[in-house]
User: Fold this.
Amino acid sequence: EAGVAQSPRYKIIEKRQSVAFWCNPISGHATLYWYQQILGQGPKLLIQFQNNGVVDDSQLPKDRFSAERLKGVDSTLKIQPAKLEDSAVYLCASSPDRGSTEAFFGQGTRLTVV
Amino acid sequence: AQSVTQLDSHVSVSEGTPVLLRCNYSSSYSPSLFWYVQHPNKGLQLLLKYTSAATLVKGINGFEAEFKKSETSFHLTKPSAHMSDAAEYFCVVSDRGGSQGNLIFGKGTKLSVKP
Assistant:
């Protein structure tokens, strides 16, 4: 079974530029998560989708971050404009459904904002 | 509200000695609890999970954890550390009784294993 795919693996941008990350979850998984992991910290949930609907985006900085999962399969996370403090690893995870007890994580995208 | 506290940011053990990584949780509902491991430049991997069945949970690579409701703890143990166990470990709580089921991570414990 293929795992959660993320791209790119690494990205370096200047502050005030925009960037987008892509995630393809495990086939058939209804729930998709985006997490932000700042160096030295645990992952923090940014947004959770159930199919193509948003379940929780309470911690998403909506003035600069946006995410979509239009067809209920793959998802994109965008930052516009980026700030230095956005430097982090962005992790995508999926699970079979919202009540499932396990999430499967991709390898993440390491973003460096200079 | 849910939360997780990992009591040690860094644990160092010698190879062949026991490992203890401590975790306390807070949850309004019946929690699911997990331990994930993250090796450098690798994705998060599930070690084990507790979902209201047996309180002693066995995971991969010889790790196990015991759910203690009275102490709100879910400590991770391994009888004998191996060099390959050196990594970052995250204790995670999920609110199964709530509507969202999202995962709340602790800050992580970095495990170092000395030869």
Notes: The interface with chain A takes residues 32, 34, 36, 41-46, 49, 51, 90, 94, 96, 99-108 of chain B (CB under 8 Å). Chain B has one domain: 3-114. The two ends of chain B are 41 Å apart (CA to CA).
